[in-house]
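Open question from group meeting: does this chain pack into something compact, or does most of it stay loose? Before anyone orders reagents, we agreed to write out a predicted structure and look at it together. Recording both the input and the output here so the notebook holds the full record.
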Amino acid sequence: MRYQLEYMKKYNSIIRSFGHVAILMLIASPMLTSCVDDDTTLADKALSEIIIDATTIDEVYNIDKNEVLRIAPKISQTNKEKPLTYTWEVNQEVFSHSPEFEYPAKYLGRYMCRLIVENSDGKSFFPFIVNVNSPYEEGITVLSQDADGKSMISFMLTPTDPTLPRHFISGDCFSVNNEDTPFASHAIDMVQSSGSLIIACQGADDWQSHPTAGRNADVPTIYYLNEKTLVAENILTVTEYADFKPTHLIIPSMGASGVAYPVLCENGSVYEFSTTEGAIAKPTKLQSKYAQTCLVHDDGGSGWYFELLFWDKMVGGLCEIYSGYGPYYCGRKYHLLRDECVGSDNYFNGNDIVKMVLIDLTDQQKRTERSEILVLTKNAIMTRKTILDTGFWVYDYDNGENMLFDNGGTSTACVGTNIITENTPCVANKTYYSLLFGRGNRLMRWNYTTQQTLDKADVLQTFGSSSAVITDILLSRDHLTTYVAFYEPDQPGLNGSVYVINTDTGEILERYDNVCYRPTRMIYKKK
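Structure tokens returned:
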């Protein structure tokens, strides 16, 4: 106690001698003492601010579904380097604590994200947005199958930026987006309708003898794929009809609610398919046997007006389903019934149709031109007929006369030897007044308004090796380019290719080799 009193007296005398200066010295003396006993400096005690380099991380990212977004930010500190911890948030939920961001884009959408970096002194934040977009917005979609029937979907994206090149997305688009869903074999047809890609598969040839037939066997199947994600949203397996082996989905681009559309099968029978209910039923309208050639003509996607055209093999007559009504038969009288399609009233008079081809119109031509079809019969007679908005048949509402093919709406041409079959891929256009069709590895062009005969058609271009086979052809919307799908039967694996040519000259403009198996159907998927 005596020592403490003497200690205080001593420092009180110092304070009296030096005034305020002594007071400051007394206050600062603990830090001075610390500097003597420790290696740290004033700088060591300063806060270390975290800096996220904005040049290494963007505010907005646009990526496609199934891509992986990788971000490796550059981080610095203003003072001594201190241990850092990272937190990546996606929609206000912790995603990871890794120094780098690896985000697999599984679902479409807009995601609010944030990077949080912290040390013992504080935190820094960097908010950013990730937009996951559809890689299948618009472009060429190819349905194909290998030698064993294995099905595949390939897609060639059309970039929104016209300066960027087009490319086929690698991998099978079905398996990538439906990991736990088997794809039935022998995929044969595909349509885009009402927000979906509808795909028909025949299944295995021996599915009925499979011990698990109707459950796990490779059975005839119809898929509804979301047109933006290609995820299967509905799967319809058909095991109740032994002869259900689909070849053509005859569905307009905008399926109307409550309407049953035809599905043409390999044996010529037709079943009705409700796109809204997802069910197959026996037909109430089309109960005959039909050729493997048919047409779908609609009003551009509204679903209110459409025409479906078939060739009835039993009576040798062309018949139509008009906006769900019918069938109506083509004859010298307007809208014949099936039992009236005989004798002199049947315009075709025993001729058997081989192929029907819709003459494609550009968007501009559709404003002023009428739709037409090319009809090729076995006896090498081609007819060209006008399709009116009031119906597929020529009909004069002013004077009430029923006329078909007799009023200048049709012309007949000699085509020589008919070298086209039901399975020949064909397209026709009104820009060049030509029919393009595949014959082996050769793309042929026939000018149907001239005296040129079909068997003398020009070779516009050849594709692949001498054994290559063209299986489908597709016109661009402006008719200036044509997509040709072919495959090399002697090659294993991805032996299918798609080339883009100049429709007029045949010049090959783009080559996409080995992007699919044997192509069975090619469409231009729209937004």
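Observations to bring back to the group:
The first helix runs from residue 2 to 18.
Residues 306 and 323 are 5 Å apart (CA to CA).
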